[in-house]
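Listing S7. Sequence submitted for prediction.
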Amino acid sequence: MKKPAPVSVSEAKSLFAGLDGVPALLLAVSGGPDSTALLMLAARWAQALKTQPKLFAATVDHGLRKEARREAAAVGKVAKKLRVAHRILRWNGKKPSTGIQQSARQARYRLLAEAARKAGASHILTAHTLDDQAETVVMRMARGSGITGLGAMARRSRLDGLILVRPFLELPKLRLIATVRAAKIPYAEDPSNADPQFTRARMRRLMPELAREGLDARRLAILARRLRRADAALEADTTRAGAELALSTAEPPRIAFDADKFAKLPAEIALRLLGRVIGGMGTEGPVELGKLEALFAAATPALQNRETARFRRTLAGAIVTVTDGQLTVEKAPARGRTAARQLLTMAGRGQPKRRKPR
């Protein structure tokens, strides 16, 4: 097997292409080999430019491992040698007992976004690799994700009003390890990366076997890239369909479509359009694909039989109705004590009795 080559200076220039005109960049550096390579290569790239972007490195200490504080301090030493400002961001407060990795990820991006704004940086750079991309695709396959989810990570995406950039997304992890080793820069290894209690660690163990069957990291990344391309086309078609089918209404917090025309849309476009509108009108965040598919399947008979059929269902804080030849989506009434009393009254039980204070 050919020994992985370190990333060269000229290659680093192409990896950071398009960022030389950005005034300030925040680098997410955990202290592992991938992000340490990001810190080193970005520093060398910036120093070679006539007009240097201001670099800031940030390390998130989640407070989950006692070694994390020492690792964050070690990143600070490396950053100082490379003449890059460094900050340690701490995830304070009570930690959840379940779903810890997902919660930690959300906290990490929130803290990074806050740090970027304070530093005046519009871009956050992370060190996600080709291997990370492949693992993400396999994990989302296992969860039954749709086209959007299987597109996995893009080189550039939005993060809370900022731009998230992943310059190493087409580089194998082994090349980044070779890069920091060649430069004799120390790095840390997070034991949770190999802990089988976490899904990503279990998927990581499967990757060599998949590669032997021809489904290696590069092919999985190609699949993700092709699906992102298809997803972009479908999103454009969905936007056009929404503009063509939307009906004007006298009640602003309500979106309506001609039911007959909506029923004639390709199923994927209709599903995406419905999901968009529910997500915009609802109050409970993004719509789960499985629940959206179930609602769409239940509404289809009413869409196809506009003369007699009626449909009404709530999803993600929005009410979807098919009646009088229209499909409408509006915000659902707030749940709570008032709504509960209304339901009890409608059920013929009268007002609930008030408890005497103890």
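Caption to Listing S7: primary sequence and predicted structure tokens for the chain studied. The first helix runs from residue 9 to 15. Confidence is low (pLDDT under 50) at residues 342-358.
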